[in-house]
UniProtKB/TrEMBL annotation:
It comes from Collinsella acetigenes. It comes from the Bacteria. SUPFAM superfamilies: Phosphoglycerate mutase-like (SSF53254). Pfam families: His_Phos_1 (PF00300). The lineage of its organism: Bacteria, Bacillati, Actinomycetota, Coriobacteriia, Coriobacteriales. This is Histidine phosphatase family protein.
Length: 119
């Protein structure tokens, strides 16, 4: 497998179709959206089930994070506007095998905290 985007990996975003992608990238050696969601949920769940995992920082590219976010929120994911962009931080808790979104911190929030104009 060539990663989530298959042959599109590393290409310009303008070449990609609009979301939802469904199984589009699977036709090019990549993963379907559901496969990415399942992989993100399984991997992060496994990390959180490790006894030493009390507080974990996970970093990934925006599309994988968006799939994890949408998997956790389910239908409520469409209600979150604006969608967290690059350099956003999402704080999740994990209890009894389930993730819960606690907070989203976006570029505008960083700028406000630092007292600077947003990019």
């Amino acid at each position: 497998m060539n990663g989530f985007f298959g042959e599109y990996e590393g290409e310009r975003i303008s070449l990609m179709p609009q979301r939802p992608w469904g199984d589009y990238f699977a036709h090019f050696g990549g993963e379907s959206q559901q496969e990415v969601r399942d992989r993100m949920m399984a991997t992060l769940g496994e990390v959180m089930e490790t006894p030493a995992s009390r507080c974990v920082l996970a970093v990934s590219h925006g599309s994988a994070i968006k799939e994890f976010h949408d998997a956790v929120l389910g239908d409520a994911a469409d209600l979150l506007k604006p969608v967290p962009g690059n350099a956003s931080t999402m704080h999740f808790t994990y209890e009894d095998g389930a993730f819960t979104l606690q907070e989203v911190f976006m570029q505008e929030d960083y700028a406000r905290e630092l007292g600077v104009e947003p990019l």
